[in-house]
């Protein structure tokens, strides 16, 4: 089993001009060095005892030319066959995700104007439903005013499978449009355990975030997910916790440390 020490991860994450590179080393050479390192460990399972160590390793192996996301996957020990044990919710990450989220709001009148003022990217009612039915889904989050929800029944078959259908339990059907839009734009993350393996997968930021910001986001998300498990699982650790970047290998945490 391959293990990467904190010191090794720090060296991998070194900036241009460090001891890893020749005096005139370039950023492309650093990316190449990291890319070969990633290939070497693809078939292995990296492990870390602590969250900080895992984040350091993940950031070190983020070698793409574009900003990489840092994701966390929690495999819960709930019974996926029981509907009352399916975990689903939202949480506002303290440092956001680093992504620009396009928000659609289904509303009329004053609430529609409120949505536009709050920064919603797409606002409408009947016209927006028609756009959805045509397959035009240029948004990642959907919020609806309560009086417009019946109108959206037509679009349920399109929005539902993509996890976009508004739901009062998740705070996406509300009269507090301004607050809902600001939360969606400000780093609120929706999560749900899949029905096959009880796996919750979510983004906790970008690889360029500091360890502190990623740690705070990860802890906030994990606390929210684990707190929504049925009472009989309180105090029990999840089955596994893995952190990875978009192109890097997964780093498995010691899941026994997490027993919220």
TrEMBL record:
Cell cycle listed as a keyword:
no
Listed under GO cellular component are: large ribosomal subunit
Which keywords does this Swiss-Prot/TrEMBL entry list?
A: Ribonucleoprotein, Ribosomal protein, RNA-binding, rRNA-binding
Q: Domain of life of the organism in this record?
A: Eukaryota
UniProt KW Membrane keyword = no
Q: Which is a GO BP term held by this UniProt record?
A: translation
GO molecular function per UniProt:
rRNA binding; structural constituent of ribosome
Q: Which HAMAP family match?
A: Ribosomal_uL1_B
Subunit structure of this chain's protein: Part of the 50S ribosomal subunit.
UniProt lists the family membership as follows:
Belongs to the universal ribosomal protein uL1 family.
Protein name (Swiss-Prot/TrEMBL): Large ribosomal subunit protein uL1c
Q: Which species does the entry assign this protein to?
A: Chrysochromulina tobinii
């Amino acid at each position: 089993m391959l293990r990467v020490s904190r010191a090794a991860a720090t060296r991998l994450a070194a900036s241009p001009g460090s001891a890893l590179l020749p005096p005139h080393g370039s950023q492309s050479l650093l990316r190449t060095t990291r890319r070969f390192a990633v290939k070497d460990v693809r078939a292995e399972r990296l492990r870390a005892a602590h969250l900080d160590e895992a984040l350091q390793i993940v950031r070190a192996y983020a070698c793409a030319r574009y900003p990489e996301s840092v994701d966390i996957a929690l495999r819960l020990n709930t019974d996926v066959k029981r509907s009352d044990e399916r975990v689903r919710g939202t949480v506002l990450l303290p440092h956001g995700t680093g992504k620009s989220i396009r928000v659609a709001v289904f509303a009329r009148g004053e609430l529609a104007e409120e949505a536009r003022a709050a920064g919603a990217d797409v606002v409408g009612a009947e016209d927006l439903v028609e756009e959805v039915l045509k397959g035009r889904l240029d948004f990642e989050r959907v919020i609806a005013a309560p009086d417009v929800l019946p109108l959206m029944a037509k679009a349920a078959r399109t929005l539902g499978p993509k996890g976009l259908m508004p739901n009062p339990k998740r705070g996406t059907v509300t009269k507090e449009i301004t607050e809902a839009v600001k939360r969606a734009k400000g780093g609120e993350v929706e999560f749900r355990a899949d029905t096959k393996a009880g796996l919750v997968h979510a983004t906790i930021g970008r690889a360029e975030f500091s360890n502190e910001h990623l740690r705070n986001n990860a802890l906030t998300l994990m606390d929210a997910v684990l707190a929504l498990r049925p009472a009989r699982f309180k105090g029990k650790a999840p089955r596994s916790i893995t952190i990875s970047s978009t192109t890097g290998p997964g780093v498995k945490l010691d899941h026994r440390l997490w027993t919220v």
